[in-house]
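User: Can you help me understand a structure? I only have the sequence.
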Amino acid sequence: MSGVLALIAILVILVISMGYHYFETAKQPLHPNSNKVIEVKIPIGSTNKQIGAILEKKQVIKSGIVFDYYVKTEKKSGFKAGYYALKPSMSLAQIAKALQKGGSSYPLSSGKVLIREGVTIDQIGDVIAKNTKFKKKDFLKLVNDQDFINSLVKKYPQLLSSAVNAKNVRYKLEGYLYPATYTVQQKTTLKQLVTQMAAKTDQMLSPYYKQIAQNKMTVHKVLTLASLVEREGVTAADRYKIAGVFENRLEKNMMIQSDISVLYALGKHKTNVIYKDLKVDSPYNLYKNYGVGPGPFNSPSIQSVKAVLNPVDKDKGYLYFIANMKTGKVYFSKTYAEHLALTKKLSQDNN
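Assistant: Let's start by predicting it. Here is the structure, written out as tokens:
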């Protein structure tokens, strides 16, 4: 009998020892060296036991039961509902502290949409399709949806009132979606994303609406010229001078003759524009049409807008410019003869 009791005593000790060891190890990180981030949703009204079960199921902790026991013995309370970014490398103490601090009201899983300066609507569609759940075809359809455009005009009348009257534009919102980084949450709709972009443009242009009116220009014309300046120039100084060249040509009723307009008319990217390209039949081809074209050719930065509103060296009468393709330096000239001489010289230097 005494042997049986001794065996029972040993088993009890083993169970207690194993339980203690399990409890102590369960308090430690599940995977100490893991860098994995796991999104966990804690619903409103969740008990400690339910929270522990969620954490165990998400493989953030080893045991939900141990979590429940731990927070009770350590008197941890005040856990808040929300979305949390937790790691298996966190201890129960660290997790409890995070839960007390509170999480996000919205899912953390999101896409980042980076719109760079000088990109077209078509290129923006590619970025959106790559980084979000939205399809490019739906985006391109939306930026030409008249009902949606009208809703944006009501929100941002100073920005879009001149855009609604534009004729022959490829995409009605071309140039009106500001280059910046946008966060797309799981609940974000495509309309909300595009609205954010238009709102950002309105925000950036707000300080300049008065000057645009004083210059007797429309926002549409400013953005159109700015989109050309954005791509034709590399440095800020060059863009201010190029804006002056465009203004001088317009005042003399000369065609702007920008290669950027030809590339947009062609609808594709090319390193070099050839003579045949200049003949493309499109209202966007400024080698065949006077004025600035139907509308913006891309999404310009605010710096290019400022260049259009405050051109430099306009009084010097420059009508032409050409860039050294190797160095990026831009040369300006007043006459076509000077321009041809510069073109020939640069061609010889680069060969």
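Now, to help you interpret it: The chain has a mean pLDDT of 89. Residues 209-349 form one domain. Let me know which part you'd like to focus on.
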